[in-house]
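Dear Dr. H.,

I hope your travels went smoothly. While you were away I took the liberty of generating a structure for the chain from your last submission, since the lab meeting agenda had it listed for discussion. I wanted you to have the full record in hand beforehand rather than looking at slides cold. The sequence, exactly as received, is reproduced here:
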Amino acid sequence: MVKKERHPSDFYLIGFLLTQAAIPLHLLINYGDGFRLVALNTSPNLYRIFETAYWLEAPLLLWYTRSLVYKNYQWSKIDLAFILPAAVYLAFTVVTFYSLDYTTKYLALRDYQTVEAPILRHLSGLVREGLRVIFGVMCVIDIRHCRQQIRKRYSNVDQIDLGWLNFLVIAFLLIRIWAVFVSIALIAKAHLQINIDFELMGLIGNYTTFILVSGLIFFSLMSSSLFEGVETREEVQKQEKEEERSDIAPELITKIESHMRDRKPFLANILTLERLAKQLDIPPRTLSNAINRHYEQNFFEFVNHYRIDEAKLLLSDPEQKSKTMIDVMADCGFNSKATFNTFFKKVVGLTPSQYRTKKLSA
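The corresponding predicted structure, in token form, is as follows:
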């Protein structure tokens, strides 16, 4: 039996889920009345070991997002810098906590109260939550860039559903913003004597996070494997600069139009930029450059204009009047009735049904 090769995103997801398991353990050990003494009598070292997960979960979600939306995603030097805060925190914890002897750690933790912790510890928590918000914003930006680039590579985008990822990432971002307010509430109560129920606020955030993690697991398993990813923002900017310096040969435009007219590759609903470029025996970048600059369209618009022209022929042919709109849609290469109707009306100014009625009654 052939084993299925794991996608890199699987490992980032596993890492993220492990942090989501470690964080509740940290909360139980440090703040759970029943669990606290058991952990303390087992080993004081348990009190800080799982807290590093807070600093790692946001970078792991970012890497997971990028591994899904970017083609052949690999770490850069900047990605390595994302774990620097976790490394700094771990080093700080080793120096200020793990270097202490057993008795000192035990006595310090036995009577420890959240609101009586040093201001430095509370401020580090606020910084941590702020960094998590920044990582969340980066996730949203990457998904937005991906959605913009999809139409430059795919002729049918309905099966490429990133809505679930976008929703979950935004939801995690909101939870992290909420966590910033929880940290502020904790500081306000501990050092400004402002009575705010930060524990209830934290509890709400924890339960919501559990729901979101469950949703992430479910949708990750259900997500389509048809999407191969797009180029990163840096790669796109580099390509655009190269395209601005290159000329488009008239022979290339003639070759593209002859192929589209004679072979009608757009009738296949799985047509992508890479597949069309392979049919034309030219690099995908060259084809993309020609479509973007000569036709002033993205790949999605370019291909679907040909599909609309084909649909107009079918809808105006009396011999094809028995075909349903679903049949016409499929025969032209569309795989979504909503996209077919929307794009048809945008280009023609009429719905497909209105266009057929007008042509056949003339």
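Two observations you may find useful: The chain has a mean pLDDT of 84. The chain has 18 helices and no strands.

With kind regards,
E. W.
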